[in-house]
Amino acid sequence: MTTAFRALRAEGHKLLTLPSARLAIALGVLLPAGIAALNARSPHWSGGVDAGFTELGVGGAIGAILLGVVAVSSEYTTEGEESAATRQIAATLTATPARLVALAAKLTAVGLLALALAAAAGVATFTAVHLVRGEPASAVTAGRVLGVQVYLLCTAWLALALTVLTRNGVVPMAVMIANASVMSVTYLLSKVTDAAHYFPDAAGPHMFLRGVATGAHVAPVTAGLVMVAWVTAVLAPAAVVFCRRDA
Amino acid sequence: MITFDSVVKRRGERHVLAGISCEARPGRVTGFLGANGAGKSSALRILLGLDRATSGRALIDGVPYARLRDPMRTVGAVLDGSGAHRCRTGRAHLRWLAHAAGIPLARVAEVMADVGLTEAAGQRVGSYSLGMGRRLGVAAALLGDPPVLVLDEPVNGLDPQGIRWMRTMVRSRAAQGHTVLLSSHLMAELEETVDDIVIIDRGRIVAQGTLTEVTGAHRTLESAFFHLTRTEDGR
Question: What's the pTM?
């Protein structure tokens, strides 16, 4: 128990002193708030039941993905031969040799920060909408706010687990962030197959979006279960690989 | 006491270690000597539980590293540089390690002073020289004031002053009754530092014993090394 608690403190300290993790949190909070403010100023503003929530689902997710990725990729960053910095994973695993404990500590630290990110992003985004429009965003219920929390938590964990498998941040970051922001492959696939509606970034937001007009209706609880299933499906092999392979 | 008991490591078809058995005893500095790629680092990584042995065991006081109750208070290790992320300060690196090991944070400033990094404590590791990185690694190893030290190529990248500092540190730890195991391919340096020596050649131990025993009738450790690791084609 003490080992686990010590490992958690270490992981928390590591994340808070890692500039890219701080950047991830700042982005995850400011991006949705900024986009929501811009949308609220637009003459085409339609208000609607998803005002603020749509932005949290994209901007908040980008922060969560980045957080999950850098928490792991920073362990494997290598520099040239002449650098004083070397792969951190050796230090991590000599300090906490029980690998499952080390991984659980990282998951917990990332999870706690993702929840804090989600809470701060929610407050910032709905405040931005309120300030710009002069009236509060509609239908901000406890259930939907919880949905955002669960979505961003699962997204961060999914990014973390993928990066454990790849040991490099580039691929998970490119796949997940591009998919969340630039062009949604999931959306394109959903035109071809209904299964795409159950991809994490398609199903997950149904936990808090009410007005989405996609082909499949996914109930909030189902959406949450789909997210949990995705996290489990990627995390389980990641944990096995992390415990077995040479560091 | 460090014990390697028939440790084998295979990567695909290649035998990185072909069953090594040796010891490092308290109060003595033991040196792994071998060419680059001979298997020295692999042996140390297996000892620290970072890599998995294909068969055999590497133990610290009879226990595998991963099962030590308080690993950082038992073994201090420096493998392949500092293990610090370039964007973190030297102090922040030691702090998270102290958290992980349950060591009071006051110890961080002490070890930084011990290795001469007090002034650079607040700088990012990315701005450190190779030698400063080594010192940071040693500071991390000393955090828990462990009775066992494991150092992989400790003098690589150090300037003459740093090399002397490292040698003095290692000798004084052994004089206090601690166990020190280090690896190097620098023969003259090892001759100055170690009591016992283990020569590894292509994953096999070709000689082990005290420095005098291994040097034997040869004039220097270097000529003994080349005699012992001679290949059949006469290289």
Answer: 0.93
Q: How many CB pairs under 8 A join A and B?
A: 122
CB < 8 Å to B134, chain A: 84
Number of Cβ within a 10 Å radius of residue A205: 24
In a domain? residue B234: no
Nearest CB to A93; choose among B50, B89, B93: B50
State whether residue B75 is helix, strand or coil: strand
**Residue B19, in any domain of the structure:** yes
Instruction: Tell me how crowded residue A98 is: count the other CB atoms within 10 A of its CB.
Output: 18
B235 belongs to a structural domain: no
- The residue range of the domain holding A111 is 2-244
Question: What ipTM was reported for this prediction?
Answer: 0.92
Any B CB within 8 A of A241 CB: no
**CA nearest A20 in B: which residue?**
B87
Q: Is the dihedral of CA A227, A15, B83, B181 positive or negative?
A: negative
> Which chain B residues contact residue A70 at CB under 8 A?
none
User: How many domains are there within chain B?
Assistant: 1
Q: Do A2 and B102 touch (CB under 8 A)?
A: yes
**Residue at B36 is within a domain:** yes
Number of domains in chain A: 1
pLDDT tens readout for residues A161-204: 999 999 999 999 988 887 777 667 777 777 777 788 888 888 88
Determine the distance in angstroms separating the CA of A16 from the nearest CA of chain B, rounded to an integer.
10
Taking only the tens place, the pLDDT of each residue in A20-39 is: 999 999 999 999 999 999 99
Of A6, A82, A87, nearest to B101 by CB-CB distance is A6
Domain that holds residue B42: 2-228
Angle at A32 between CA A74 and CA A27, to 5 degrees: 25
CB spacing of B81 vs A84 below 8 angstroms: yes
| Chain B touched by A17 (CB under 8 Å) | yes
Kindly state whether A2 is in contact with chain B, defined as any CB-CB distance less than 8 angstroms. yes
Q: What CATH number does residue B160 fall under?
A: 3.40.50.300
Say how many Å lie between the first and final Cα of chain A, rounded: 24
